[in-house]
Amino acid sequence: MQDIFKFAVINSKKAMRVTIAADRLNELIQTSSDVIIFGHENPDGDSIGSCVGMYHYLKGLGKDPHMIINNRLPDYFVFLVPDGALTYFVEDPNKCEELVAKADLLVFLDMNGMNRAGEVSKMVEDRIGHNPSVRKVLIDHHLNPRTEEFDVVVSDTEVSSACELLYQVLLEQPGVAADVNRLSIECAAALLTGILTDTNNFANSVYPSTYLAVSALQGRGVDRDAIYDEVFRSYSRIRMRLMGYMLHDNMRFVDPCVAYFTLSERIKEQYGFVRGDSEGFVNMPLTVKDIRMSAFFTEEADYVKVSLRSKGDIDVNDFAHKYCNGGGHKNASGGRLYMSLEDVPEYFESKVKEFFAR
Ligand code: 5GP
Ligand code: MN
């Protein structure tokens, strides 16, 4: 069985690149003592999965890493996080600054540039700036990585998730030597969580390499059903009611093939919304036969958060870039609008017309 998994990594076209980057990563890890792992702001399953996977790998090497994420995880991902291993920047900026001040290696996961870590990236920039003795690593699957910001970059868009890419990189590490059984079960569970969530339970961005990774991780002994229960069957009652409202009263269709929702502060308050309650809503319109693009707009304190999804050739990364101050992937992107939520429908509908007129 092992050979199948070995083959997947060693013989794929990108194997040489992954191998070279993995070697350099190994050098950096071996010569560092204080490692900080960063996930992107508004963390999702791939973000926390890749961070926790890296955390356990480093722990296994006898290191004492710490994770920093800008703001809180949805409750249904907390089961992955070891006690005391993660600090949220918005909750304890001083501790984060102390940790960064003594770090000699920073690992950024599931983001294409440091700024996607959120507010915390400004602190990192101020604190260590271009200090070459603090090395920086990026492992990511988004378009257009800002390679100039890092010492080592492993970037590949032809994978399901940062977790899948991290899995490939970890298999290449000398202590693992292509044997998934040398990854701890906690590491494997975190990686599998990220793959399950970023593919929306195998609905999108699934590659042949994805099944190989999943097969190996499950073969390692990870309880996939337990993860499924934690992540996809642990939602709140509030979320169910809110979903009813959003589908029945809020969703609007725009010709030729678009649907969107807007979630205001007022409705959030009325339903008792907490972060994570609208997770996955943006995917729902894509189950309608003729709908090929969907958008979800959430009112935040200083901006409107945008989530975009699409099917097939419709490039929402392009849409996010052009009209929403953002980016992401071809079929899943996001961004921010600096306008009031009331102005969003007119703005969005006019941009949809422009986008589909081309
Ligand atoms: P989500 O809709 O789940 O928040 O984000 C979908 C994708 O879009 C993610 O891959 C994420 O990296 C990207 N994304 C979300 N928000 C932003 C943003 O503000 N800027 C950029 N560049 N990408 C974003
Ligand atoms: Mn991801």
Short précis:
By secondary structure, the chain is α/β, with parallel strands linked by helices. Helices cover 41% and strands 16% of the residues. The model is unreliable at 1-12 (pLDDT under 50).
Written overview of the protein:
By secondary structure, the protein is α/β, with parallel strands linked by helices. The protein has helices at 2-10, 15-30, 45-60, 93-101, 120-128, 162-171, 185-198, 208-219, 224-232, 237-250, 265-271, 316-323, 344-357, and strands at 35-38, 66-69, 86-88, 105-109, 135-140, 152-155, 252-254, 258-263, 293-299, 304-310, 327-328, 332-337. The strands form two sheets. Strands 3-2-1-4-5-6 form a six-stranded parallel beta sheet, with helices on both faces. A six-stranded mixed beta sheet has the order 7-8-9-10-12-11. A hairpin with a 4-residue loop joins β9 (293-299) and β10 (304-310). The longest helix has 16 residues, at 15-30. The radius of gyration is 20 Å and the shape is globular. Residues 1-12 have low confidence and may be disordered. The structure holds guanosine-5'-monophosphate and manganese (II) ion (MN).
Descriptive terms for the model:
2 domains; alpha/beta; six-stranded mixed beta sheet; inorganic pyrophosphatase (n-terminal core); 12 strands; 358 residues; binds guanosine-5'-monophosphate
The shape is: globular
According to CATH, the homologous superfamily of the largest domain is inorganic pyrophosphatase (n-terminal core)
Instruction: List bound small molecules.
Output: guanosine-5'-monophosphate, manganese (II) ion
CATH fold naming of the largest domain: inorganic pyrophosphatase (n-terminal core)
Give the number of helices.
13
